[in-house]
Amino acid sequence: MAEETPQGYHPADSNGDGVVTPEEHKMYLEFKRKEMEDADAQRDAIRKMAWFSLAGLLVYPIGIAVTSLLGLDTAAGLIADIAPTYFVSVAAIVAAFYGKEALTARRSDSVKVTQSKK
Ligand SMILES: [Ca+2]
């Protein structure tokens, strides 16, 4: 499947000779597939991190209560001491996640307009 490119540029034309050979086309498709898989894995990782952070927010006070109940007063005190830092950090992670989601959603909603001189 050779594809002529009169402009001399095609993303699949890796050696820039103006023709997309079957090998180049296959490489291009493989690259695109990997790119999509990477983006998917990245989204999954970020989503998991956000859920882990939210779960941590819920478990944290329970941790204080459990250590207190077990009589580990020093541990309970230490956990309570780092609570402000922890909560602010987790809030920042979750805010960054939702901010990114909102930005991505807005970008995919928008209409792209391209202009070219003829
Ligand atoms: Ca080529």
Describe the structure.
- The structure is a single chain.
- 71% of the residues lie in helices and 3% in strands.
- The protein has a domain at 43-108.
- It has a two-stranded antiparallel ribbon.
- The protein has 3 helices and 2 strands; from the N terminus they run ββααα.
- The chain is mostly helical and 118 residues long.
- Calcium ion is lined by residues 13, 15, 17, 19-21, 24.
- Calcium ion (CA) binds next to strand 2.
Question: pLDDT average, as an integer?
Answer: 84
Tell me the radius of gyration: 25 Å
Q: Estimate what percentage of residues fall within beta strands.
A: under 5%
Bound molecules: calcium ion
The biggest beta sheet reads: 2 strands, antiparallel
* Number of continuous helical runs: 3
Quantity of strands, as a count: 2
How would you classify the helix and strand content by structural class? mainly alpha
Amount of helix: over 70%
- Which segments are poorly predicted (pLDDT under 50) over 5 or more consecutive residues? none
Strand and helix order: EEHHH
The first-to-last residue Cα distance is 29 Å
Mass-distribution shape: elongated
Spatial strand arrangement across the major sheet: 1-2
Quick take:
With 118 residues, the protein is mainly α. The chain is 71% helix and 3% strand. The site of calcium ion has 7 residues, from strand 2.
